[in-house]
Design brief:
Length: 303
Amino acid sequence: MRAFIPIMFCACIHAQTNPLWHEQKVKNYLPHMTWPEVQDLLTRSDMVIIPIASIEQHGPQGPLGTDFLAANERAKLVAQKTDVLVAPVLMPGISPYHMEFPGTITLSPDTVQRVYFEAVQSLIHHGFHRFLFLNGHAGNQYVTRFIIDRINQETSATALELGDAAAPFLSRNRANPAPAAARVFDRHAGVGETSSSMYLFPNLMSMDKAGKNDVTLPEHLAKMLPQVEAGDPAATQIFLAEALKPKDTGKHTSTREMTATGSWSNRDTRESTAERGRDETESFVNAAVQFIDRWKTLEPLRQ
């Protein structure tokens, strides 16, 4: 009887475990770590990657957490190759132009910058002094730069934008021109982003809902689109400054005013592939690791 009691006890404990929990512990990922593990990491690295993301619609095929998940997963992949803490802070970001689609959450730029800055102050207190912001949502780009500048101007720490830092290390085959399909307008929740999502979190994708998208633009932007697709830098700057803006601006470029599906793309999202997503992800991760390792060489950890 005594030998049978522990077996029953173990079975009972297992039966009480959350049936929805499937997450595995990931090295250097702050929400999974204990404080002694963070303390140990500080003996090897004072660097932190902070993903900046959003909760916003990503077409009928992508989850609302796409930007949060993508930035988080890329950061975690980087942290498996070089010691750096991954510290997510917020899920939502700045997404007012998606608010006509249910589920989108948007915050003010002031709220976003205050929360991230105060989170960094906490991490500085613990001994982290180098911060890399990984922006998963283009709408956060200007507030991200403001946060970075505040850290550099107001604290003892140093901050950089990881996309900018990794860019020189990205491997590109410039000898081969982009295929014609790559020059078709394809932005938010399009083939590129959907492909990355299929690689990073495949079981959350609803690819049976993917399909053709028709983008409707204000007349002057529609006339500009061919130059944007051709890579004209001036046209692209002007186009993006006016497009994807909140409905109440009167620019008629909120997402719902331009696309019924929420996918801001003239391509069929059924063209998306996990292989393309893997290639783009691995290229970025390798470039980010190269930059981080170079920074570690230039400025070794101060003990």
